[in-house]
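Example record for the data management plan.
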Amino acid sequence: MGKYDTFDFDTDDEGDGIILFGTNNRPERFKADNADMAKPPMKKRKKRGTSIRWCFSAQFMQEGGGIEQSWKEAFRWYSMAAEKGEKTQAALSLGLIYLHGNDRDIDNEKAKYWLTIAAENGKPRATYWLGVMHQYGFGYPKDINRARECYQKALNAGVKESQEKLDELK
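Corresponding structural encoding:
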């Protein structure tokens, strides 16, 4: 169990976003540095329920927006969301944590696994990062053609950084 076992959103008297983290039903209130973090879109909250809330919790821990930054806690919350079937943001974030080794050893196989899940479920940024893995041989044999395909697919889906990578490969 991590430092916190519950998570919720609220607003203070001025209407600013508040993140509630708690242990044993004793919430601690943290004002979000970024008000958007404390107010996730209601449509998404209702549609994806608990798993999307866990992703916001993880993001809050990852960025340290008003609370002590903790990659370990972020990883735990993303993992819980992924276990509940969150196959976009949680999978992307887990893939990047494994790829970059944030507070853990780099594991290209796990990075590839999670990024592939995110890409297959419509997360174009995951496709971009799979391109990086192909370009540099992280978890795959180095394959410039496959990297180019990933970058082009990500660019077509709106990931602008992909153009820089495509230019690099010319």
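Summary line stored alongside the record: The longest helix spans residues 42-63.
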